[in-house]
Amino acid sequence: MPGPMTSPSPSSNPLLQPDALPAFSQIRPEHVEPAVRATLARQRARIAALQALDAPSFAEVVEPIEELQHELARIWAPVGHLNAVTNSDALRESYNRCLPLLSEFQTELAQSEALYRAYSRVAQHDAAALTAEQKRVVEQALRDFRLAGVALASKPQQRFKQIMMELAQRGASFEENVLDCMNEWQHHVTDAAQLAGVNSNIVTQAQARAAAVGKEGWLLGLDQPTYQSVMTEGESRPLRRVLYEAWSTRASALTGEGRWDNAPVIADILRLRQEAAELLGFASYAEYALATRMARSSGEVIEFLRKLARAARPAAEREFAELQAFAGQSLEAWDVAFWSERLQRSRHNVSQEALRPWFPLPRVLEGLFEVAGRLFGIQIRERRDVDTWHDSVRYFELSRDHAGRAEVFGAFYLDPYARPKKRNGAWMDQCIGRKSLPSGSALPVAHLVCNFLPPQGDAPALLTHTDVVTLFHEFGHGLHHLMTCVDYPSLAGINGVAWDAVELPSQFIENYAWQPEVLQQISAHIETGEPLTNAQQQQLIATQRFQAGLATLRQIELALFDFRLHSEYRPEGVPDLLALVDAVRTEVAVIKPPAWNRFPMSFSHIFAGGYAAGYYSYKWAEVLAADTFAAFTENGAFDSATARRFVDTILARGGTRDALDAFVEFRGRPPDIGPLLRQHGIAV
Ligand code: ZN
């Protein structure tokens, strides 16, 4: 008898409309599991048929598998996305119920001996008939089969499978602990003086929040804009300490009576990763991770980080001494951002918060699209008839001229503002991947997600220049996904790109947010419409070098902690996380945070994201990006021949070739750290 418990029929399930953009506003938590189960069942049947084929060709086995992966990503991407930007208990539950199903399926596929044999046969017998791109699809798949344990005996293979499932769940628990801890936290302020200096929009919101629960005064949350504003502008030292302590002990035993403590989750994750690496014959998880990276060995990564640290250290020491002298006191961790902001303002007469009126979001977007147009000959236009998950979300289409007509080749959603139940930070994610297969084609669609301060009333949202750089960065990832000309989903866009090279396009585009002619274009004062003056621009540009030594060391501290953690972990004993943090700080850091700082407990990049043994890739890619941009500036920042070469060798090539080979083809030599050090004003 039909009743409320009946699953929706496939035809009414918005997740099962494979040829359209996701109907985000229609997707309900109860759609998720039936859609995933139906898709997996259908795919399993198709895979069984493929596995039964005798000596199948590339077209008979590789292309269908590419198609299946595309289809599955297409159904799951909207779910993962909604879980990140409109988290609810019901959606989270559906999402978590499906994670093990998907992980099990992916492992099954990756560990299929029949498919491994079929791909090996294609590589041996059909190679002469394949294009370079097709050959690479097969080679990369064979590599991934081996890394997924396909060559293992059945018992260790089962264990490997189980580990992958458990890791997916532990990663989700890690993220939930961080999010719950942030959502639950609040701080009641009753004395207005405590809020001196804090951004007025944040103060207004905090007041509304207090009023909503019948309280006097202000209720501060632990969202990113509030944290940043208090840390950089809050004049009250005690308030800064309260926020700093809450932020840096997130999801640790020191907060919420240990309810969200990630320590046991981390212990599990490290143990499972090590076990998986050893099953495949690697000494450590770091070695396993490097098998798919541009960097060739652990030694190369550690030496790279230490070389940069050595180059940056004298500058960092000088910068911190200057800061303490300026503040006239010895500084604690919660004072550094505040005094840095003041020093920067006094030295360069620039304050991030004071710049907001010059960067209304619509103007910045227009300028950013202009940059993309000049560099790559593309046009970007908004479409307003597309269904989304929130009123503030916008949708843009990319096109280029083709035989005299504008041809759309991709699109992206922009979800710009912070709001409750949305994961913090900024990121690009794939909504739909590009494919051009005999079975059909699809244009790529991306998600660009930021956490900017929402607009007040009818005025447009106003960004800091840091926000502007963030937007350019995520847009760069977006271009990598959208400008791909690769036909096979496993290598299109950012797929199959070495992790440590994947930040190259995003960090490269950041450079344009610092160019005078671009600043001229993206700035227009909200009241006067005037762009930043030349003097303001020069002052802002000078900030790029401000405390560059300290910033470099902070990144290296995180990177070295992550890499050593994943290369030194030994199964006989969980490493003392805090002792390792301390050792790394002793080696690298100039500013020592308090002993109760528990940043690893909320270090989502390496415990819940894809950056395990890979945080170094930010610096690695910065070197690539600065060296790439140097190739442009040698010929002019908008030089079209250089831009074309960049698109042809890197941006449009996805994972179709080795990252180092691609870079060498673009630059004519291997990467050099010189341009990055010069950009930061750190003497070589
Ligand atoms: Zn990035």
Write the layout of secondary structure elements.
Elements: H1 29-51, H2 58-85, H3 89-110, H4 113-126, H5 132-147, H6 154-184, E1 187-189, H7 200-212, E2 218-220, H8 224-233, H9 237-248, H10 263-279, H11 285-290, H12 298-327, H13 333-348, H14 352-355, H15 361-376, E3 378-383, E4 394-402, E5 405-417, E6 427-432, E7 435-437, E8 440-442, E9 445-452, H16 465-482, H17 504-510, H18 516-522, H19 534-542, H20 548-568, H21 577-588, H22 604-607, H23 617-633, H24 640-651, H25 659-667, H26 674-679
Parallel strand pairs: 5-9
Antiparallel strand pairs: 1-2, 3-4, 4-5, 6-9, 7-8
Bound molecules: zinc ion.
Brief account:
The chain has 684 residues and is of the alpha+beta class. Among the domains are: 10-170, Neurolysin, domain 3 (Orthogonal Bundle), CATH 1.10.1370.40; 185-249, no CATH class. 56% of the residues lie in helices and 8% in strands.
Descriptive overview:
The protein is of the alpha+beta class. Among the domains are: 10-170, Neurolysin, domain 3; 185-249, no CATH class. 56% of the residues lie in helices and 8% in strands. The protein has 26 helices and nine strands. The protein has helices at 29-51, 58-85, 89-110, 113-126, 132-147, 154-184, 200-212, 224-233, 237-248, 263-279, 285-290, 298-327, 333-348, 352-355, 361-376, 465-482, 504-510, 516-522, 534-542, 548-568, 577-588, 604-607, 617-633, 640-651, 659-667, 674-679, and strands spanning 187-189, 218-220, 378-383, 394-402, 405-417, 427-432, 435-437, 440-442, 445-452. The strands form three sheets. A five-stranded mixed β-sheet has the order 3-4-5-9-6. The chain has a two-stranded antiparallel sheet with strand order 1-2. Helix 6 runs antiparallel to helix 10, helix 17 packs across helix 23 (617-633) and helix 20 (548-568) packs antiparallel against helix 21. It is globular, with a radius of gyration of 25 Å. The model is unreliable at 1-8 (pLDDT under 50). Zinc ion (ZN) binds at residues 473, 477, 503, 506.
